[in-house]
């Protein structure tokens, strides 16, 4: 790595360090401002009474019985009450597609060529 690249990378890391530190300090200041100790006793009492009211509403809602559901229609009563005739479910017929046959011809694949055995233009032949 040359000096120029190392300098650029170190400058970016320094910038990231400065920005990260500034963000951390700002977050810490915002957290210090919104502490619970800044609330007065009257504000806490008001919030507590609101929560007690919501809790009472939840208890009354939980103790109430929901209304009964209407009776479910049986298939016989549903057919009798509906003027339109019931439709038969549609039958699904699956037809397999015709097979696709691809023939790839590779001349000489899998065969040992004569050149591999030295039978090329007189090589390996004995002269008498």
Major beta sheet summary: none
Low-confidence stretches: none
Helical/strand content category: mainly alpha
Helix content: 40-55%
| Average of pLDDT | 80
Compute the number of helices. 3
Helices and strands, in N-to-C order? HHH
Task: Supply Rg.
Answer: 43 Å
The overall strand count is: 0
The shape, in one word, is flat
Q: Give the end-to-end Cα distance, rounded to a whole number of Å.
A: 68 Å
* Amount of beta strand: under 5%
Describe the structure.
The model has no long low-confidence stretch (mean pLDDT 80). It contains three helices and no strands. The protein has a domain at 1-32. With 128 residues, it is mainly α.
